[in-house]
Each structure stands twice: as structure tokens, then as C-alpha cells.
Amino acid sequence: MTRWRAVLAGFALAACSEALVFALTGRVTLVGGLAGSAFAGYLVGPEPADGAWHGLLSSLAWGTLLIPGLVALAVTGDGTLPFPYEYLAPLFTTSGAATTGILLSVTLPNAIAGAVGGVASDARDDGDGGAATGTTGGRATRATDRGTNGDDVGWLGSNEET
After folding, report:
1. Spatial CA neighbour of 124 closest among 108, 139, 146
2. Disordered: where is this region (predicted)?
């Protein structure tokens, strides 16, 4: 299930970091989206699949804001392709290759970053120094990780899922 607070937190991190990079360099990168995806994955908890899903959602939410901004920059004549596409674009020889390359490069790295964030969350939970209070499916959980039904709900402490 989707935890929208984690998606929103990843979106916020991506937007803030990209705004900072743009203010400092005048260029757009996709690094902020990766950072936001990893953060969203970290927030949802130890499952890599959940982290990948939330990282992907976070990056797609950020992309819906970023793409119109990039188009506006391109129309005004001040914009270039975001890093790393400026280096990848000459490698695509057909429109099908370009479409496939762009779709894979905006989804796969963000899903991987979200999964890595989830694994990092698991490493954080494993080194809790004896603060665990119970187990869920063989994994130690803290009392704050439990929802109202006793379900393990991750670091956000909310069982608000849709």
C-alpha cells in the first residue's frame, strides 16, 4: 500500500535539492529526484519492494512538475537537456530507442534508489541497540512502528494506507 507522506517527503527533498542546484549552477540535473526517491524508500521501511515503489512514485510526482519547467526553460532559449541526457541524447539513433532510453532512465534508477533507501532503513533498524520491543514476521520492531491494529507500519508511524 502507498504511504503518501513518504512520497510527499521524497518530492519535497527532490524539489528543494534541485532548486538549490539550479540556483547555484543554473543547470538542471536528475540527482535531486534520485535523492528524493532514496529518502522516500528510507521512510517507508525495510522492504526493498516498498522502497522501490515509493521511490518511483516520488520521482514521478517530481517529474510532473519538472518536465513543464524544463519545457519552459527550453522555450525561452536558456534551457538545455538535464544531466545526464545531454550526453545520452546523441547515442539514440531512432525515436523508439530515445523513448525506451528515456523511460528506462527516469524510472529504473529511481526505483533502485528507493530500494536502496529501504535497505538502509533496515540497516538502521538492525542496529537499534536493544530498543526493539517486539517482532513482526521475525523482524524486530519498535513500539512506535506499530499501527492501531498492531501492524508494522514503518518509520512514519501511521497506518494510513490507500
Report:
1. 139
2. 123-162
